[in-house]
Amino acid sequence: MKGQNNQYPLNSVSKFFNAQFHFVRFLAYILILGFGITIGVIFSFYLKECNFSLQFTQLSLSSFPRTPTLPTPTTKPEISNQTQIQTQVQTQTEIQTQTQTEIQQTESSHVGLKDFLQPPHVVHDMDDEELLWRASMTAKIPDYPFDRVPKVAFMFLTRGPVFLAPLWEKFFQGNEGLYSIYVHSNPSYNGSRPESPVFEGRRIPSKEVEWGNVNMIEAERRLLANALLDIQNQRFVLLSESCIPLFNFSTIYTYLINSTQNNVMAFDDPSSVGRGRYSIQMLPDISINQWRKGSQWFEMDRELALEVVSDRKYFPVFQEYCKGSCYADEHYLPTYVSIKFWEGNSNRSLTWVDWSKGGPHPAKFLRSEITVQFLESLRNQKCKYNGDSINVCFLFARKFAPSTVSKLTKIAPMVMHF
Prior knowledge:
By secondary structure, the chain is an alpha/beta fold. It contains 12 helices and 9 strands. About 25% of the residues are buried. It comes from Phaseolus vulgaris. InterPro entries: BC10-like, Glyco_trans_14.
């Protein structure tokens, strides 16, 4: 009985200490939980403050003028807002620098009318279609807003070199600014012979040409188109490497610039070498009554030259149906000009040739045939000019062999008054 009474106080003390232990442990849990919640609230508030500060900075930068909007990154989504802001500022600086550079370049490179009228280089990268389109452009206002010195375009259709160049050099000497030169030679010609200074750099981009073939007309149109690119060219003369002038430059220049007519030979030839070359397949665009023949060596004004390079009705007919023995170079321009522009045409050529010996080609003149009397006979022929009879009929003559060049350069200054 006494033992049981002694155990009771011990159990009471044990229960008392257990209760205190549980209370302390519970209090510790409460303190840890409260501390954790407090840390979480503080950290969350800090993050919100940082995000608001970055957004405010970005909004302020976006109010700057001319700042481009950057697209949202797709390949690197981990880029921070601070990196995007730095990229925007850098891009803005680059754009401002580039704009200032462009303004400075514009202010120092104004293009005036003089620059616009500067003739393009003879050598270019345009194909035939691009060239003809570019050459067909013309101003609607006929009066020129500047002082203009009209020029004559001398267009040489050759196989290779202009072997009479020394004579032509004497002809052109001292008349710079009044003429332009264009040379269409066979593409196979590599310029192996020394070029005369007056012809240097005057070869246009060319293509193959065959005698009597329609590609000869293509070459003529190519020459016209290149010459039309120079707005000062007002008269256009087609020549060959065997042609010579019969008068000095001032006489020929005055004759052409003051002419009121085009000079394209055109006549109706009822024989087999005239109407006999016509193809009925050319109907309905060209009838046999409209078919004409003439020399290919023409001279024309700027208005007609523009029409020739712009022709998309009659030339395609010749390309399609004038083949073989048709000889398009003797029929295209005579027929086309007679149909469309006969009122302003003299129906004659300014280039003299000798057909007295017959055959498909005119006579060729050798060195032994070149005399003062012979050249004077070519110069003293009467023709109609602007409705009046004059002593100047032909301005040029052909065909002169390469061997004649030394003799021609010797006697021409005396006869032609170079």
